[in-house]
Design a protein that fits this description.
The complex is a heterotrimer of chains A (328), B (260) and C (298). Chain A has helices spanning 6-21, 27-51, 60-77, 82-104, 109-127, 153-180, 182-192, 194-199, 204-230, 240-253, 259-278, 283-297, 303-313, and strands at 139-140, 232-233. Chain A is an all-alpha fold. Chain A has a two-stranded antiparallel ribbon with strand order 1-2. Chain A starts with 5 loop residues before the first helix and ends in a 15-residue tail after the last helix. Chain B has 9 helices and 10 strands. Chain B has helices at 49-56, 79-85, 102-112, 127-139, 155-166, 185-202, 213-219, 237-241, 244-251, and strands at 11-20, 23-33, 38-43, 64-69, 72-73, 87-89, 173-177, 205-209, 222-227, 230-235. In chain B, helix 3 crosses helix 4 (127-139) and helix 3 packs parallel to helix 5 (155-166). In chain B, 48% of the residues are buried. Chain C is mainly α. Chain C is built from 12 helices and 4 strands, in the order ααααβαββααααβααα. Chain C has helices spanning 2-32, 39-59, 64-89, 99-121, 130-134, 147-169, 171-181, 183-188, 193-215, 225-240, 245-265, 270-284; strands at 126-127, 137-140, 143-146, 220-221. Chain C has a two-stranded antiparallel sheet. Chain C has a two-stranded antiparallel sheet with strand order 2-3. The chains are: A mainly alpha (328), B alpha/beta (260), C mainly alpha (298). Chains A and C meet through helix 5, helix 10 and helix 12 of A and helix 4, helix 10 and helix 12 of C. The complex binds adenosine-5'-triphosphate and magnesium ion. Residues 49-50, 92, 177 of chain B line the site of magnesium ion. Chain A: It is a multi-pass membrane protein.
Chain lengths: 328, 260, 298
Amino acid sequence: MRHLDPTILVVVLGAAALSFAQPHMPGWVVYLLQIAIAASLPALGCMILLRSGLLSFGQGLYYFIGAYGVALVHAHLGISDAFLGILAGAAASILVAGLVGFFIARYRGIFFAMLTLAISMVVYGMAVKMDLFGRSDGLNVPRLSYLGFTPSRAWAQTSLFVFCVWVWAVFGIATHLYLRSRFGKLLTAIEDNETRVEYLGWSVRHAVHINTIVAAVLGSAGGALAAASARYADPSLAYWTTSGEFVFIVLIAGQANVLAPLFGSVFLETLRTYAAAFFPDEWQLVLGAVMLAIILFLPKGLGHLFALAGRALRPRRATAAPIEEDRT
Amino acid sequence: MTRSRPAAPVLECRGVAKSFGGFAAANAIDLAVSEGEVVGVIGSNGAGKTTLLNIVSGHLKPTKGKVFFRGEDVTGVPSRTLARKGIARSFQVPQLFPTLSALENMMLALSLVAAPRKSILSRFDDADLATAARDALDHYGIADCADSLVSELPQGVRKLLDIAMATSAEPDLVLLDEPTSGVSSEEKSDVMQRLADRFAATGTTVVFIEHDMDIVRRYASRVVALTDGSVIADGPPEEVFAHATVADVIVGEPLPEGDA
Amino acid sequence: MNLALIILVDGISYAGWLFLVGIGLTLVFGVLRLVNIAHGGFYAIGAYVAAYAIGAAASYGLGAGPQLLLAFAGAVVVGGLIGFLVERTVLVRLYDHPEVLVLFATYALFLILEDVTKLVWGGASLYAFQPRNAFGTVAIGSLSYPVYDVATVVIAVLVALGTWFVLNRTRTGRCVTAVVHDREMSAAMGVNVSAIMTGTFVVGSMLGALAGAVTAPKIAVSPGIGVEVIVLAFAVVVIGGLGSIGGAVVGALVVGLARAFATHLFPDLAVFAVYAVMAVVLAIRPYGLFARPVARKI
Ligand SMILES: Nc1ncnc2c1ncn2[C@@H]1O[C@H](COP(=O)(O)OP(=O)(O)OP(=O)(O)O)[C@@H](O)[C@H]1O
Ligand SMILES: [Mg+2]
């Protein structure tokens, strides 16, 4: 390791700081952060798919699977271990995304978006009718234990929060390493020119397939955290508007860095909290209006503001050819 | 057939045909290219030259006929597999990654086709990879543009970058689609000389499509002339250029009366 | 024998509805190259306007015919107006944006339209069954079938014929076809592309609203009806091939019959029938029955 990657440093320090700050934060902030952390993982999945120009309107499916991983492992096996719950969801979503990927990996653009949406809606339609998933009411999720350690009632909240934070840290860092690898660059290259990628000896379809599986695992991890935080899992997690919120998160935060979806998610949850206070019945209206405003005026997302600020502060690189500001 | 005889040509097309919804872009093309040959493919616009490369490099499946690479039947094998088997191909319209810099394009080429598959998870942003890429660009004289975005490069540089990326993996067979089009006329022979030197040094077999007949005369050891998807002449340059139809239709300078 | 008839009649009736729902979506895609998720919003608005108009007309003592006429006209006018506003204020600024952003913008519009409908009409369901009941039933073979449902199919056929006529037999229609074929070329030939695009979006919105209005007397008009419809409509037009009118007809028939078949023979699978058909069709023809992908020249 030559020098420490700033993103990894920020994630580790941030996670440590949050872990220690938890007892001093008001309950609603803790809850808001937990939900934001959970939702940012499927959003991260959307982000890595977007690297190849693929917009998924169906990440909710894996959010759903992750949540039910925790709920079903408890309901049927009596296991309330957090790690096993996450693993169960991850295994199931690898399976599902592995199968679904054969079908959708060849589609692009609108087709990819609408097919992912359709698939998650099929699962939603199935789940609301099946007792296994508790029909439209969903299932309850127990208080979790962690590798045999069951925190006392007083510490349950803290334990869960710390768990969420570090699960995010692990997945965030893993995704960061994934994106900065050669495969990560290949994913970006796919959007630019698939023909060239194929002529460079790599199957675009396999790469997309693998990426949908990785995105699915991220989504399911988020779902497990969401279910553990809300203490229940219900089919609406697979509903397309849930998936829409994940894309919204990426849209507002941009896709420059794995931390972007986390900021986007915190922004969304904060917005939701305030909207609930001031416009209790017009949440979709608020969401839609904010989205439209960002698309119209800041098409690269709020995160782009940071990037622009950073570029303004950083001294220009002394290279032979000037770097254009605008890459599109 | 996977058993390869020692004398099998590097590339062989047997009766290769391609039609696009009834329109025949290639008709029963027979072509065998041996080790170390430099074959120039000529033909007017729409003669089917690119189509032939598309088929040979695995981008298109032929409607009829078979393609062999070193004696192995590779008909319908996708381009990604052929790329790994050693068939490299440049494009008439450069196929690049426009949102990346020239250096990143080259780095990506080196880390994909020219590296073992398992290295795919190692870091992209790597000093050794960058150095190797810079060297590869330097080889084609475009290292100055390394840090520019591809979308801002002049056509000639793109063309060279496209060739540099295609040939990054020491291929056995190189297919070049109009390597000098878009390159300024002063640089044309420079570019071609560089390519010829490089492939002569490694004994690489080359098939190149070219509209500039001077370049073809100078660099091809053999010329194949296509018209309406069929081979009308195939042989040493002098012979093919002496062919009446070639001179008339492709070169555009009909032979003097009685000279055929 | 009777079952076969039931399946056939049900299937065709459902297909008529599906076509009405899908035609606007496919038309807009053909000309504007965007999948308009807000189409579901126009459908919902149409249904609400219609239910409201039927209620209002009934309270003035008008008969079933005038009730429906008012309902359809009201839905089409309101849908068209909103469509015009949306295209002129939002979409027109986005045509040179990446596909993904435009798709998302229509999603945002859909969310806004949904809540606006809820704000205007409240969260409770509206019922407008009177006209459908008033028309009674008709005997088809041994079946007795609601006249209104047969009329739905007739409306669908009329809309299909009308669309075909406008596209193939009028000057404007030929301009639209030209824009679908090649936008730049049509612009170069003097076609007012931006007017065609606005016009198509308005017509697409009207058709979406009309589909909602036609459906209103058959359902409880309540929040959320637009969502299901957009997914279904997408399935239908994707099976036929996005942007193809003939494809929408065939897609609607295929899905309609498949669903009727499943409903009567394998009721548990009815939900999946649509998606199963879509998956099979796309597995064989990745871009639908009547669309072919344009190969990129290299
Ligand atoms: N994917 C395709 N679909 C339909 N027709 C095609 C396709 N590719 C090529 N053609 C047609 O096949 C014919 C041969 O095309 P090709 O590109 O091989 O010509 P070429 O000899 O390379 O010409 P040029 O010198 O202009 O590059 C042309 O008429 C072209 O329009
Ligand atoms: Mg060509």
